[in-house]
Amino acid sequence: MQRLSVRHTLATAVTALCAIATTANAAPRSVANPLATEDQRVLDALAIEINNGHDFPVLKASAKAAYQTAHGLPISDEASSTLDAAIDELAFSAIQKAVNNDPYYPKVYVVDAGPREWFGLDVPGGRYSYDNPDCVYRTIPIDSGLSYIVTGKRFTPGPTDVSFSLISNPNSQNTVAYLAGEDLVLGSDGSYKITINSTSAEGATNHIQSTSDATQLLIRNNLGDWTTETPDEISVRIIDDASDHDPISKTKIVLDATSNLGQSIVTYGVGALGLKTSINAVNTLSDPSQSSSLGTLTSQASSFGHFELAIDEALVVTLTPGAATYFVVPVTNPWMVTTDPAKQISLNSVQADPNTDGTYTFVVSLQDPEVYNWINTTGLTEGTIMARWQGLPTGSESSSSSDVAIDIQVVPLSELASVLPTGTRYVTPSERAVQLEERAAGYARRLQG
């Protein structure tokens, strides 16, 4: 039922997009979707083929047990009803990581995304461990002994936040080298080239130095305004001669997928859900901290927590941006997976309305409180939250993460007005309908294939 609901919403989003495009006669012609590439079609088709032929029943059972243990007892019927779907997406994510794992034949592949229909393919969801609804995640396999050129094109407007991380493992995602978006040098036409090899990055422009630990380039394009911002167009080329290397076999892909799923059970079930999230008291969020592991960025601070709400209650979350150039507060289900991105399950630094003092206050609730900064639980009475701040200084300068902060309290909806800041922006039902229509249309732009 959940998957059918998502597809129905995506269809609604596409309809909304077409309606807006029809009425906006003066709007410029949109850029073709840079995510809908031939490499994406080939890899999605292969991932579907592997998924249809391999169900991984033992590993899925182990994953389910690990997630249940990390969650803790009791587990409500509501939470249990979405667990199998979350494990299915975890398994498909493991396959997606495996199909694009040949450094001699690298491709650019969109991963960690919800179910979609494009290229005539019915692509399952591959979301895991706090997928960000703003983010287009793309991967490129690399080998530290080889040289690569990543070619990109920035459209106007481009993503609010961009990063390129060399990671040591597609599951733990520990960062070993990093190129920040603000350090990327663009040509006058928005084009750029990034070199990746073992030579030093000191004094170099658009260069990432690989090490013996590096196995993959993870590219994040965070879209602030979904209705206007477009992900970069990205391709990759290996410089070295790969003619004496055969492409990886399907047998090797299945073995890699099996290994990925096994590692994911520990990394995400035990680590992200257990040690990062469930360890916190309910309806609290951890202090923001920077890390280079578990899918985070060295330039990112993160805060984790889980909530339980009655239908007449709300979480009031106040965020201090500090030195961050981008932030987002998304709600995910009890298993760290977004429910329906086209609904207002998140707000970021571009979408949200600020307080007069520069902080941001969000209301997380089942019912619409008629507050502009409402984050919709989509009917969930319990779930998880990973707030994140990006664009922060790294290394010895990372102490600036102390400038970011987040506070949270639970209040009855009947008392909500008494705790909201002066000047809080409210919306009428018709204004909310426009806000949600624009969001759905913005999300649909990524799904055109």
UniProtKB/TrEMBL annotation:
The keyword Signal applies. Residues 1-26 form the signal peptide. The keyword Signal applies. Keywords: Signal. It comes from the Eukaryota. This is DUF1214 domain-containing protein. It comes from Aspergillus keveii.
